[in-house]
Structures are given as structure tokens and as C-alpha cells.
Amino acid sequence: MQLHDTLDARPTRGDAAPSSTARFQPWLRRPLAALALFLGAAGPVVAADDYIYVVQAGDSPWNITTRYLKSIDHWPQLQQYNRIISPEAIPPGTQLRIPVGWLRSRGRPVRITDLQGQVEVLNRGVAQMLERGMTIVEGSLLRTGANGSFTLQLPDGSRSLVGPDTELRLGAARQVAASGGGQIKMELLRGYVENKVTDKRRSGGRFVIDTPSGVTAVRGTRFRVTEAGQVLRTETLEGEVELRNRAGRRIMKAGTGISAPAGQPPGAAQALLPAPRLDALPERIDRLPVSLELPAVAGAVRYRTQFAPDASFSVIESDRLASQPQARAPAELPDGEHRIRVRAIAENGLEGFDAERSIVIDARPEPPFPSQPAGGSVVTDDAPSFRWAKVADATRYHFQLATDAGFQQRVAEQDGLAEAQFTLPDGLAPGAYFWRVAVTTAAEGRGPFSDPQGFRRPPPGPQAEPPRLGVGGLELRWRASGADHRYQVQLSTDPAFATPEHDLQTDGPALSMDAPAPGVHHVRIRSLEPGNPPGPWGKPQQIEIPRDYWKTLLLVLPVLFLVL
């Protein structure tokens, strides 16, 4: 797609001043002035984007042409275009209209003011990696990688932020001789570019982005352009933007955008979605990668999150999309203060207004990985031990134990631990607990705490009352530990309960069973709470089952009578 008669700055017949033999002769002025007056009556319609030149004392069509226009051939056209009757007596302060295409300009270098990631420039078939501070010239092709971005500082003070996965050619970067205004043309082959353009309405300047799907032209505004899959998307944040292709033309005012497929007339401008609210985001992030919930924006189907080192957003450290109202960023973001920018994306692909604020990342050194006790576990030890992964360059560890996940009610805290473990010196009461640990290194200082690991310290297991041994057998009773609890009872002649002779379950805090074999037995009980692991075993008790000597005597007496 080409934009004709806008940025063609090539001189047609010499930028140098004409020789004395080619000077305008005074005796020709009046006839040509009359001819210009006659032609001016049927002159062209004045274009809205003409450069306005304010006449100074001594100015004439001739010397204006020799100083500022591309060719001496333009002087009669200039006189005709402005319907000048007396070319030798133009009053100072008169405003003359000059088509932008007539203005003389010269190429100016473009500087890379900031750069992030992988960016290369291809000039005359030679590729090289871009560096901050380098200058590029007209015709250069620039490419960014998946994490690459850079800012172009243009001759007129305009700035363009080129995003990741973008291919852009610098078509023209010229400065108008008459005003110093810039005439900029870029070819966006694919990707994304965001522009802040200086006001060109009175300078004869022009800023044009040409894409395979259409052309975007401005004269002072802030706007974004994306070329993706033969679709041109333009979003106007400030000022006014013209979008055109072979099928039509549209003007977009601030706060609107257009998604224009190649070969189709641009549709009506659509209102951009409002900026998401970021006031609920934390001031500090201590976990990477970033995934933060956002209030949904009505009409949004996706959200774009960008991070930058500072408010200038001259480079993009991270550019992530999310299908849910979330702000996302990768784990590679460095610690320090950053600028976060989020915008909502409509179903037509147009991206809305930016929400922006400062945010601090303080995620390093990364916390150790907790190992024991694991999250959600049941700890039966009176004084449990805590263990975590060892960090190679750790100088010390910081341990915390609390009864709440926010660690407002801490019951134990120990800083300056040299080893990756800690054992509570005193017993721990039954209840729910949370623990976490942080590490300090010489290179990065103290890092954030690990995610809280919750565990439960259950009440001690039931303790059997003194057993009752009767004619019906053995009867055991104990205190109930919960209304819906069941109980497991084990009896074993082995105090270690390696292979208990009896392993029974009951719905209540009592058990009746046949009397076990005579001798010494050990009994232990634990509660079974629905939905939770079994509780700890109560303290084992020892039961002695006496021998029934009367039964033995009744068996022996008949034998004795026979003998006698």
C-alpha cells in the first residue's frame, strides 16, 4: 500500500540554487502573474494538510521556491495555487499554502534510545545486532525477537516504541527545510508499534505507517498500529488519525479504533474499552511468575500486561496475554521497581486504554522448598522437626510458625539458623499451624518467605480406662474424642505392636470382646475422624489376663480319681 504525494522527498531538478542565467527575469513577471491569476480562478481545491508558510518582508514566489521547495518549476505553481496577483508585493504575515509534496527536505539519522532483548537491523543485505545509541538510516529493516523491543527517536522529536515479534522498515526520516518539521514514513510488515508524534499541523511534517493491509497517517497524536494476519488495527489515544486502504478511508478521533482487513473498506471507528482498575494490585510482588487477579472489564475477551523499567516505557521487559482478567509476567523479570501497564482487548482485537502504575518486584533470593512436615499433613510428635531444601549460597535461614496463614499469631520464630532444619524446643499444643522459611544470601540479601505450609497437630489418642474382665469377656472404655468419630483398638503381646493379635474397629468409645489368651497384653487406641487421616495412637497400656485355675482343676480332678 503506497501513500502518494506525501513523503516523496526526492528533488526533481536540483536542490541547489539556480544559476544567474536561469533567474526569473523582471520583464516576465507581469505576464506570468496575469497567467497565474487566470489559472488561479480554476485552481485546485486547497488540501487540508498543506504546509502554511507565513510571508516575511521581501518574500516572493521565486525566493520562497529557491529556498524551500524541491524544484524551481514550483514557483509559478505556488503563485497559481495561492492566487497571487502581485507577486512582488505580498504583504508580510500573509499565509501561503504549500503542498507537502513540494517541500524540500533532507534525510536525518534515527537513533535507538533504548533497547531490550534481541533486535537486529538489516541494511543493504548486511545484518547486525542493534545496540543502544546506534543510528539507523532510511531503508533499514529492523526485526525484534519474542522478548525484543526498542524505541526510535525520530528527527522531529517523535518517538516510536517497537514491540516484540515485529518487522519494521524505516522508509523515510526527513526534515523539512522550511520549518524543521519531520516527514516520517515506516513500513510495518508485521507486529506492533506505539507512537507519540509531535504536532505537525503547522510544520509541513507528516507521519505515515504503511502496512500490507492499509495506511495510517497522522499530524500530531498518540496512537498504536498492529499488523497481524492481513488485518490492520489502529487505536487512537490522543489527537486524530487517518486510516486508508485501497477500498476506503476513515478518520479516527481520540478514544476510538478500527480493525481493517486487507481489501475491505475500513468500518466505522469503535470506542476503545476503558482501562482496567489496578488499585487492588499489591505494591510489592514476591512471587514469580506474576499472576494477579484483576476486576473484569465489560466487553473484554483478553488482557495484555506489559512491564517496563520506568514510566517512559521506552522498552518492554515483558508482554503477556491472558484470556482471563489477570496481569501476567514471566519469572525472568528482575528485582526492583517497575512500571506495569494493562489494557483490555475487545472481541474485534482492538486494545483499550492503558492502566498504569508502579510496582516493586522483590522475589530473590527465592525461598527454600519446604519438605517436612508437608502441607496438609498430620503431625503427632509433641515437638516436631521442620526441614527444607538447602540453598547453596545461604548465609542463614529465618523460620516462622503461626496459628494463622497471615502469620499474625506467631508461636515460634527463629532467625539466624545455619542449618536447613529446626526442632521446636517445647511441645506443641493440638491445633492447626502454618510454617514458612526465608533465606539470606551474601549476593542478594534476605528474600521472601516460602508459601505457608499448613499442618494439624491432633489431640492425643484416647486413653483406655482400667479394663473389666468378667464372665462375658474383656470390656474396654475410654473418653470420646468426637461425636462422629470411630475408633481403632489393637491388642498385642508385642509392646511394639509389630503383629497385633487383635485389630478391631468400633463406632463408640467402648469395646467388648472375648477374653484374650492368658498372659500380658498391650492395648492402644486411636480415633478415626471422617475426612481426615487417623489420629495418633494413645499411650499403650498393659493388661494382664490371669489364668483360669478352676477350669484347669476341673480337668485334672477326674484323672486323679481314676488314679486313686
TrEMBL record:
Region: Disordered, residue numbers: 1-22, 445-468
Xref: SMART domains: LysM
Compositional bias annotation for Basic and acidic residues: 1-13
Domain LysM: 51-98
Coiled-coil annotated residue ranges, if any: none
Listed transmembrane segments: none
Domain of life: Bacteria
Pfam family, one: LysM
Protein name: LysM peptidoglycan-binding domain-containing protein
